[in-house]
């Protein structure tokens, strides 16, 4: 069942959601249309049992989830993160299945063509409170243990930036 978070959140892509307030203070919260790497921060308000494509059926405890991904296609970061925030949509990536129940609250991102999503997943694993809810989630095309991590409290961008040792920007949506 789709999340009900749409009614109480600022949505940055007013072209996709006419009339949505742009309250984030960054000119409509638009991410760059260039290639890059991102971490999508999601909040799951209550536990959910979700079938994640061919990975299987899993119980997700309530909490905060961070998913590391990359955006190399047309439209770059803006297109990929925008797709992750839309609902309804065809379920393609593992994160789409979680997104059906969880609300996006932020996207951490950096522009560049260098493939960093695996390094960023490893950096997420080093953050305080990180746990692996599902092995292989988002990692079907690499050798990583997972690209999804759960936290009891919101993960910290400053701590993440120190681990990856590079500048990382953030877009947030009102919760």
Terminal CA distance reads 20 Å
Tell me the helix content. 10-25%
Give the C-alpha Rg.
Answer: 15 Å
Catalogue the unreliable spans. Answer: 1-28
Number of domains: 1
> Total helix count?
4
* Average pLDDT taken over every residue: 85
Structural class: alpha+beta
Number of strands: 7
Net shape: globular
How are the strands ordered across the major sheet? 6-4-1-5-7
Secondary-structure element order, as H and E? EEEEHHEHEHE
The biggest beta sheet is recorded as: 5 strands, antiparallel
Strand content bin: 25-35%
Task: Describe the model.
With 175 residues, the chain is an alpha+beta fold. The protein has one domain (41-172). 19% of the residues lie in helices and 26% in strands. The chain is built from four helices and seven strands, in the order ββββααβαβαβ. It has helices spanning 76-85, 94-99, 117-125, 157-164, and strands at 36-44, 48-52, 56-60, 63-71, 103-111, 148-151, 169-172. It is globular. The model is unreliable at 1-28 (pLDDT under 50).
Secondary structure layout plus pairing:
Elements: E1 36-44, E2 48-52, E3 56-60, E4 63-71, H1 76-85, H2 94-99, E5 103-111, H3 117-125, E6 148-151, H4 157-164, E7 169-172
Antiparallel strand pairs: 1-4, 1-5, 2-3, 4-6, 5-7
